[in-house]
Structure formats: C-alpha cells, structure tokens
Design goal:
With about 130 residues, the protein is an alpha+beta fold. About 45% of the residues lie in helices and about 15% in strands. A three-stranded antiparallel sheet has the order 1-2-3, with helices on one face. The longest helix has about 30 residues.
C-alpha cells in the first residue's frame, strides 16, 4: 500500500514538472500572436529591402527613379509590392532626383537585430533612401 502512495506522488510530481516546462517554453517564445506579427514584420522588411534593390537597378538602367512601384513589377526577381497581412501596397515617394521614401505599417517595434537603417517603431514607418550614383 505504501508503494502505491509513493507512485501517485511521483506521478503528480512528474506531471507538475511537465506542466512547468510547457509554461516556461510558452513564456520563452512569447505569445503566438506576437510571433505571428514578428514574422509579418520580417517579411515587410524583406520586401522593402528587395524593393530598394529594384529601385537601385532601375536607377542604374534609366538614370532616374521610377515614378511608381508598379514600374518595378516587370523587373526580374521583383519583390512583392503588397503588405503580406493587409494586402495593401507599400508606399513609395520620390523625394529628389536620387532619394525616395519607402513606407510600411509594422505590427511591432524592431528589435536590436534589425540593421539601424531599417529600425522602426510599431505602426507606420517611412525609410528615406538614396540611390548610389
């Protein structure tokens, strides 16, 4: 009878350890919604970086900035011009003969692993970029 009592105590202890490990794991990776938002933000940054490369290529070929992002759709390997979550187009504005702004709406503030050039707060963010002459 004593052995059966110890077995139950062991089973309860193991169950508590497993539950604690699961809770700790969930706390460490963060809420699922936050992870989902982070993935969308990473995709947005990747899209903007690819768009910036396409603008550079267009500038080198035509010696001027494109009037709109639609012009870039025909370039090989062109980036997505639409936000992966909302489906709305990213904003592009020529500012001068060799500089422009790319804008997107981010769910979260960028973390320390994001390059300084692309750091942003949560919400609308614009990046002023200059083509290399």
């Amino acid at each position: 009878m004593r052995l059966a009592g110890k077995g139950w105590i062991l089973a309860i202890a193991v169950s508590l350890l497993v539950a604690a490990a699961v809770v700790r794991g969930l706390v460490m990776i963060g809420p699922i919604d936050e992870q989902r938002s982070r993935k969308f933000d990473q995709r947005r940054l990747s899209d903007l970086q690819r768009i910036a490369s396409a603008v550079e290529l267009y500038y080198r070929t035509h010696d001027e900035l494109p009037d709109s992002l639609g012009v870039l759709e025909t370039l090989p390997g062109s980036a997505s011009l639409l936000d992966p979550e909302s489906g709305k187009p990213y904003t592009y504005r020529p500012v001068s003969a060799d500089s422009y702004e790319l804008c997107a709406v981010f769910a979260l503030e960028s973390d320390e692993s994001t390059a300084l050039r692309w750091s942003h707060k949560a919400g609308p963010a614009c990046f002023r970029l200059k083509v290399r002459r």
